[in-house]
TrEMBL record:
Gene3D superfamilies given in the database record: lambda repressor-like DNA-binding domains
PROSITE patterns named in the record: HTH_CROC1
CDD domains, A to Z: HTH_XRE
Top-level taxonomic group: Bacteria
Keywords for this protein: DNA-binding
Protein name in the entry: Putative DNA-binding protein
Pfam families given in the database record: DUF5753, HTH_31
Alphabetized GO MF terms: DNA binding
Domain HTH cro/C1-type, residue spans: 20-73
SUPFAM superfamilies, alphabetized: lambda repressor-like DNA-binding domains (SSF47413)
Species annotation: Actinacidiphila reveromycinica
SMART domains: HTH_XRE (SM00530)
Classification via InterPro entries: Cro/C1-type_HTH (IPR001387), DUF5753 (IPR043917), Lambda_DNA-bd_dom_sf (IPR010982)
């Protein structure tokens, strides 16, 4: 029994990857031959067939035409895309179950460290909603943030590396930004929270977007990456190892927690 048919529940992403590999094998082609005939990189096609990448609709349509499979691959790709968006919506539940979270923020303050005013400005700008929906989102955010405080029964160990771009971007309203800086300083003193600033002079690095690494009591770790068009959650060991290594490299380049708090204090005094 194959790995695909032997599972009671199969993700659309796994089905898509399985069909890609099956169709290539049925056609008697190697990855090198397929790459040459379809004009895609061999490594890219390999990632698609192993589920490491989802790719885009264009490659699904291209391979449908190549294999003569109608809209089969395009349909599976669309299901996998929708599935990924639904999975990303479960981040709140994952945060609630995690024992530790390591986060990297590139352009905005991480959600778990945002004040209501900053969060409201961010949500209203990026995802405009009705006042009722916005209020519900802010209430949900407050509940998520409760696990960072020492008063909660099971505080999560939270480490965040903030790119200095976050501080340069600030907020549109100065009072909102002043309050956010005060909140970062206060939260950085929580026993379960470690905050580090990655200065611009640290130079280039390979972590290209926001990341959360969530670890659980059972010993597993999930990686949540946030993209412009969609978010993605993975438990692939190779992905986790790679992203953890990149995160650790950034952590080592960042200011120490004490230096970070001092920098935030200095920045706050200059805004007065």
């Amino acid at each position: 029994m194959s790995e695909i048919t032997g599972k009671l529940q199969v993700s659309a992403r796994a089905l898509y990857a399985h069909h890609l590999a099956f169709l290539r094998a049925k056609a008697g082609l190697s990855l090198v031959e397929l790459a040459d005939r379809c004009h895609y990189e061999q490594s890219y096609l390999h990632r698609l067939e192993t589920g490491g990448r989802l790719g885009n609709m264009l490659v699904a349509e291209t391979l449908d035409r190549f294999y003569g499979t109608g809209d089969l691959l395009a349909g599976l790709w669309l299901l996998a895309k929708r599935e990924a968006k639904r999975a990303a919506g479960g981040l709140t539940a994952l945060e609630a179950a995690a024992t530790s979270i390591r986060a990297y923020a590139l352009t905005t303050v991480p959600a778990l460290l945002q004040t209501p005013a900053y969060a409201e400005e961010h949500l209203a700008t990026t995802h405009p909603q009705s006042p009722e929906v916005l209020a519900a989102q802010l209430n949900a955010l407050r509940e998520r943030q409760a696990r960072l405080t020492a008063t909660t029964p099971r505080p999560v160990r939270y480490r965040a590396v903030l790119d200095e771009l976050v501080l340069h971007r600030g907020a549109r309203n100065q009072a909102t930004w002043d309050g956010q800086l005060d909140h970062l300083i206060a939260t950085a003193h929580e026993p379960a929270v470690t905050l580090q600033l990655l200065p611009l002079h640290a130079g280039p690095h390979d972590l290209r977007g926001p990341l959360q690494l969530l670890s659980f009591r059972v010993g597993t770790t999930l990686a949540y990456t946030h993209g412009t068009l969609t978010d993605h959650i993975t438990d692939d060991p190779d992905d986790i190892e790679h992203l953890s290594r990149l995160y650790d490299e950034l952590r080592d380049l960042a200011l120490t927690p004490t230096q970070t708090i001092e920098h935030l204090h200095t920045l706050r005094t200059t805004t007065c």
